[in-house]
Design brief:
This protein is mostly helical. The protein has one domain. The protein is 80% helix and 0% strand. It is built from 14 helices and no strands. It has helices spanning 2-25, 31-53, 59-64, 67-87, 93-99, 102-114, 122-139, 141-144, 148-171, 180-202, 212-240, 242-245, 248-262, 270-300. Helix 10 packs antiparallel against helix 11 (212-240). The radius of gyration is 19 Å and the shape is globular.
């Protein structure tokens, strides 16, 4: 159990720190080029970890279902990653981290109200309202209404979140029988190839190298924020299951805000602390009943 908790904390820290790395990248690279560089480095990292380290064959998984990795490359990584990079051109990484909590919120709403794959109680829906209220408190709408660029950044981030929700509810479900580590390699690799082509078409070849801070941001986000975090994610699912792994949603927002403060990307205020606390309370209410049902099913078994 201690090992699983440690992996969970490392996973949360890796994902939270990714927002800080992207903040440095945005100072030197255009969004699509930056996203391509991040995913390209992550693909190299995963090749070393999965093919060389784990000695997993790569081609059989791709041959088993060549279309699915392509769809997931777009919905699980390509567009969501690009949305974060583009959004951070106008909003701070701490706000980006908190807005990222809309993914579990939307996932719950679609599962409960559209697909009806889960049974929800009024408590869960109250949690949705509380979590959204927390995001609003953190974002300070009074200030946002006077900044069209920040509103645009938030809209871009929300669009990427919707795409990621689609991946989690539809595409990922069809990947249960595939080797998850190898599938992750192909998702990241195909996303990197697609983003590279898009970068050349829409942004062209960079005329100069970005400053050292931008290069360090690319390296960090590619190796740690994307490559390592994906490996830890599937490792934790294999060890502890999806329910335990989903707890990362409670750690990423406070860690992201704290790291952004330490990196000098924002100044921490009482409003930030209260906003994050409200968001986490809402997420707990959203997930509480389902977690109780899971624990009861284990007891019955």
């Amino acid at each position: 159990m201690k090992t699983n908790i440690m992996i969970l904390l490392l996973l949360s820290l890796a994902w939270a720190s990714n927002y800080i790395g992207i903040a440095f990248i945005d100072k030197g690279l255009k969004p699509i080029t930056a996203s391509a560089a991040i995913t390209g480095l992550a693909a190299i990292f995963l090749f070393i970890g999965v093919r060389i380290g784990m000695r997993r064959p790569l081609l059989p998984t791709l041959r088993a279902n060549p279309v699915l990795p392509l769809i997931m490359a777009v919905t699980a990584l390509g567009l969501p990653q690009l949305s974060v990079v583009a959004a951070e051109n106008s909003i701070t990484p701490d706000l980006t981290t908190v807005i990222g909590t809309v993914v579990p919120i939307i996932t719950f709403l679609v599962s409960a109200c559209v697909l009806r794959t889960i049974r929800a109680s009024w408590v869960n829906f109250v949690g949705v309202g509380i979590a959204v209220a927390g995001i609003v408190v953190f974002a300070d709408p009074g200030q946002l209404l006077h900044s069209k660029s920040e509103l645009t950044g938030i809209a871009i981030m929300l669009a990427g979140g919707l795409v990621f929700v689609f991946n989690g509810l539809f595409a990922a479900r069809r990947a249960a029988d595939l080797d998850q580590y190898v599938l992750t390699f192909w998702i990241v690799t195909l996303a990197g190839l697609g983003l590279s082509v898009a970068a050349l078409v829409f942004e062209g070849v960079p005329e100069t190298l970005p400053p050292s801070a931008g290069l360090l941001g690319v390296a960090f986000s590619g190796l740690v924020g994307t490559g390592l975090s994906y490996l830890l994610y599937y490792l934790l699912i294999a060890r502890a299951g999806a329910a335990f792994t989903s707890l990362y949603a409670f750690f990423v927002p406070p860690l992201g805000v704290l790291l952004a403060t330490l990196a000098g990307e924002n100044s921490l205020s009482i409003r930030h602390i209260v906003g994050v606390a409200i968001v986490l309370s809402g997420l707990w209410l959203i997930m509480r009943k389902r977690r109780e049902k899971i624990s009861k099913s284990h007891k019955l078994g």
